[in-house]
Amino acid sequence: MDDRTKTLAQLTTPAVLIDLDKVERNIKRHQDYADRHGLKLRPHIKTHKLPRIAAMQLQTGAIGVTCQKVSEAEAMVAGTPEIKDVLITYNIIGAEKLDRLAALATKVKMSVVADNETVVAGLSQRFAHEARPLAVLVECDTGAHRCGVATPEDAAVLAEVIAKSPGLTFAGLMTYPPPDGAAGVQAFMAQAKALIEAKGIAVPVITSGGTPSMAKAGDAPVTTEYRAGTYVYNDRSLVARGACTWDDCALTVLATVVSVPAPDRAIIDAGSKTLTSDLLGLQGYGHVLGRDDIRIDQLSEEHGRLVSDGPIGFKVGDQVRVVPNHACVVTNMVDRLYLTKAGAIVATAPVVARGCIT
Amino acid sequence: MDDRTKTLAQLTTPAVLIDLDKVERNIKRHQDYADRHGLKLRPHIKTHKLPRIAAMQLQTGAIGVTCQKVSEAEAMVAGTPEIKDVLITYNIIGAEKLDRLAALATKVKMSVVADNETVVAGLSQRFAHEARPLAVLVECDTGAHRCGVATPEDAAVLAEVIAKSPGLTFAGLMTYPPPDGAAGVQAFMAQAKALIEAKGIAVPVITSGGTPSMAKAGDAPVTTEYRAGTYVYNDRSLVARGACTWDDCALTVLATVVSVPAPDRAIIDAGSKTLTSDLLGLQGYGHVLGRDDIRIDQLSEEHGRLVSDGPIGFKVGDQVRVVPNHACVVTNMVDRLYLTKAGAIVATAPVVARGCIT
CB 3.0-4.6 Å disulfide test: which of A10, A322, B150, B158 passes with A286? Predict the structure, then answer.
């Protein structure tokens, strides 16, 4: 049977469902927020990994997309002509990746980041003889302590190195802040911008990101651009942070109860190979829609264990819908998604940028 | 460049490497253990997901393989003619999966498990008019509190239901015990076996499983068969349990240092999309070979953060080898693996049973 003619109850489970009505609403709401605060929006494709949803974001006002790895950018650019501007927020190292980046840069506008001179030297060597220079932003550590130069002074030094490097143009500053990090972003970026401008170098873009922090992005007015990913689907971690409601969650996992071994316990056919072990600081591995009493307290690879303080109330064969802790990682676990509108399946979509880790 | 002509240092990272010399040694060691204890070995393919390694296990003495989902069995059976006997340790529900199971059963010997009468009824209805009956084992809960009938009495009741169901034969008892659960397995299974035999029904197979418990599998002499998966590669969780050494770990993740933002911190290009968030009770997300001082204290999707109490001692571009917490889930994250012998790449292998969740 063609999956598009199936009802949800007929789908083989576990299945990852995307509610396109909610996706549309989430895209519109966040684009409106960005517009109101004078921020350009550059969605991160890591959440959906689907060219058609990137196209929806661009058609609603996004200025381009963000990818984390070269292979993600390759998959997305090949997937839709709507994508004409890609920022890869990653230090790109090694001849093979640089060659692939150069090939992409002949097709669309590419920007990347760097937080150290070794990466800048590699980019410069590769792009010195290309027709167009590569845009490079300096990644700044505004408190997340992952990548990034540690101080505004270091940012200014690296900006000047980029500006003087053959084949490169200095394109601005980038950060992935910790949650509620707007004040830190504002302080770091304003100082770095002043130091760089004092060298006679323009800072055209200052880009920050993260869906959890987006509601306060306006508190860092130095920012010109915002990168968010998860807002397109939302998930349990964002509901827990108060960023959205269950009704805003566009991605759900449809699962079947395969065993009810005790009155207070049921086992579903979605485990860590679907929901993943990501906790994001939460207890348990997801939320069963309509059942606030249930905890998903344990996952093995193909089993999810549901427990309740009262009767679990399921029988074998029942279906449940689970909002996962973290939407982005769930789309990386499956080869295809079921897209729905008004509760009916309208399409299946291969996850073209799944597994793109290089 | 053909990947087989590359040195490890030339590979695009992150890359998952499989040391075939260690695989061979691990297979031999565990087959020897099973032989010494009179246990038939039925390896779980969830760890490797590769037909060629299943073939190595079968050629060394395994009697068949274990899969968790029908789609895994389909991928493995299609991948090698060596696989002639498959046990799916899962309650199979729904017309589509039952049809696929029936198709498999025309090609190889298939067995499945059930822990409730709804599942048995579905299996019976589908197989009643097949040429060969389906072998069904009763899944028993010997302490892991996942699936399984709760008591030996319940096992005997369900065994009789299976024995009387058209299209099915009762094939024995199955359990996935908690770690160090041999005593519980022995007590439960001995009692269930006696109760079932008292009904005049034979119990040809009693199958237990799990690599962490395998060293004590001999403590449950009622067991006839053992299912283990992780032993083929081993991982950090098994080193932590004392089940193996770092030198026995056949799966490693090759990653590149992309940033050294502080003297005690480095960032690698392998994050949760490669190493996964599985903790298995451990602190941190993997072990950097040769660097006992380093903790991988934080993962995001494409970044792994390495910290040390002393100087981290890496420069950008250095490569590291990481033993992940849990090998099985890592092979589910990548489309291909690099197989090595004597430190050189001898083949790349598509992970044919990756993402098989239905």
Answer: A322
Mutate to test the interface with B, among A113, A211, A256, A358 (most CBs of B within 10 A): A358
Classified by CATH at the fold level, domain A20-232 comes out as TIM Barrel (3.20.20)
Half-sphere exposure of B341 (CA within 13 A, CB side): 7
CB atoms within 10 A of CB A13: 25
Per CATH, A3-15+237-350 and A20-232 having the same topology is answered no
In whole angstroms, what is the distance from residue A194 CA to residue A212 CA? 28
Model confidence pLDDT, tens digit, residues B168-224: 999 999 999 998 899 999 999 999 999 999 999 999 999 999 998 888 998 999 999
Identity (one letter) of the amino acid at A50? L
CB A266, CB A260: distance < 8 Å = yes
B146 with A267: Cβ contact below 8 A: yes
CATH architecture of A3-15+237-350: Beta Barrel (2.40)
Cα–Cα nearest to A209, from A248, A170, A173, A240: A173
Question: CB distance from A2 to chain B under 8 Å?
Answer: no
The tens digit of pLDDT for each residue in B270-322 reads 999 999 999 999 999 999 999 999 999 999 999 999 999 999 999 999 999 99
CA-closest candidate to residue B243, choices B20, B16, B26, B24:
B26
Residues in contact with A187: Cβ distance below 8 Å, sequence separation at least 6, in sequence order: none
Size of interface A-B (CB pairs under 8 A): 166
Question: B242: part of which helix (H) or strand (E)?
Answer: none
Using CA atoms, how far apart are residues A168 and A136, in angstroms rounded to an integer?
A: 7
The CATH fold of domain B22-233: TIM Barrel (3.20.20)
The SS3 assignment for A136 reads: strand
Distances (CA, A) of B77 to B27, B74, B82, B89, B277: 20, 5, 8, 16, 30
Over chain A, what is the mean pLDDT? 97
ipTM exceeding the 0.95 mark: yes
User: Measured between alpha carbons, how far is A204 from A168 in angstroms, rounded to an integer?
Assistant: 15
Count the neighbouring beta carbons within 10 Å of the beta carbon of residue B121: 14
CA distance linking residue A69 with residue B34, whole number of Å? 44
| Domain-wise residue ranges, chain A | 3-15+237-350, 20-232
pLDDT in tens, B216-240: 998 999 999 999 999 999 999 999 9
- Cα–Cα dist B264/A196, whole Å: 28
Instruction: Judge whether B99 is closer than 8 Å to chain A, CB to CB.
Output: no
Task: Please state whether beta strands A225-227 and A205-209 pair in parallel, antiparallel, or not at all (unpaired).
Answer: parallel
pTM for the whole thing? Answer: 0.97
Region of residue A68 (phi > 0: left; psi between -120 and 50: alpha; otherwise: beta)? alpha
Rg (CA), chain A: 22
Contact B116 A317 (CB under 8 A): no
Compute the residue count for chain A: 358
